[in-house]
Design a protein that fits this description.
The protein is of the alpha/beta class. The chain has one domain: NAD(P)-binding Rossmann-like Domain (Rossmann fold). Helix content is about 45%, strand content about 15%. The protein is built from 8 helices and 7 strands; from the N terminus they run βαβαβαβαβαβαααβ. Helix 1 packs parallel to helix 2, helix 1 crosses helix 8 and helix 3 packs parallel to helix 4. The longest helix has 28 residues.
Length: about 250
């Protein structure tokens, strides 16, 4: 079996209904993983794409805006489908406003989903793996703004910077139990969240001019990095935040 195969494993992928999360679910399933797609919205399109390619997937509906909802969804998945080998913390939101006008409600909403739930889902996953005396992998979705400041996205930048730090901390604590903890940091990706940027000719040009590869990322570009980190080929990789940015940070 290839060291890049995920055959016989299960992954819990949050926010898998569209965009990067959907691409991750489809890519992992293509490598033989049984994917549990998780989120508030319908996962029908994701499950259809996976099953039509002869992959295996199931869905769990959950409110990922609360710790209770997220952890309950994880426990439900374990009860219904069996032990989870990989947790992919992909679900996240963004709120845009000048920092002088940014509201507490927007701050809390972003931090709850992007950071608080990420931690407590990771904790629930690690507790289950340690109890079973089995290893596993946690893969967080960070951002270029884990390294840079951004503009008009204070809570998003704070949350994604914290995700990079949390990834290191959890790796330091859990690697001895065989649980690797890593993150990917997507660059500028074609998605609903970036539609306005891509529609703005000046902003779009400025972004493309800085990317050495000369194009926006497709969700599948991010998915490949996640699938690698979940595979046996990455068994000695832990505590990193891997930029998948077309060379943006190198310029």
């Amino acid at each position: 079996m290839s060291r890049f195969s995920l055959q016989g494993s299960r992954a819990f992928v949050t926010g898998a209904n569209t965009g990067i999360g959907q691409a991750i679910a489809i890519d992992m399933a293509a490598q033989g993983c049984h994917v549990i797609a998780v989120g508030r919205s319908s996962m029908a399109d994701t499950l259809k794409a996976i099953t039509e390619a002869d992959g295996k997937a199931d869905a769990v509906q959950a409110d990922l805006g609360t710790v209770a909802g997220a952890v309950a969804a994880f426990e439900q998945a374990v009860a219904e489908f069996g032990p989870i080998d990989t947790l992919v913390n992909n679900a996240g939101i963004i709120r845009r406003a000048d920092s002088l006008e940014f509201t507490e409600a927007d701050w809390d909403a972003v931090m709850d989903i992007n950071l608080k739930v990420v931690f407590f889902l990771s904790q629930a996953f690690a507790k289950a793996r340690v109890t079973a005396e089995q290893g596993g992998s946690v893969i967080n979705v960070a951002s270029l703004l884990s390294f840079q400041g951004g503009i008009r996205v204070p809570s998003y930048t704070a949350s994604k910077s914290a995700v990079a730090g949390l990834t290191k901390t959890l790796s330091n604590e859990w690697s001895a139990q065989g649980i690797t903890v890593n993150a990917v940091a997507p660059g500028y990706v074609v998605s609903n969240n970036t539609a306005d940027l891509r529609a703005d000719p000046e902003r779009n040009k400025a972004i493309l001019d800085r990317i050495p590869l000369g194009r926006w990322a497709e969700p599948e570009d991010i998915a490949g990095a996640v699938t690698f980190l979940a595979s046996p080929a990455a068994r000695y990789v832990t505590g990193i935040t891997l930029p998948v940015d077309g060379g943006w940070l190198g310029r």
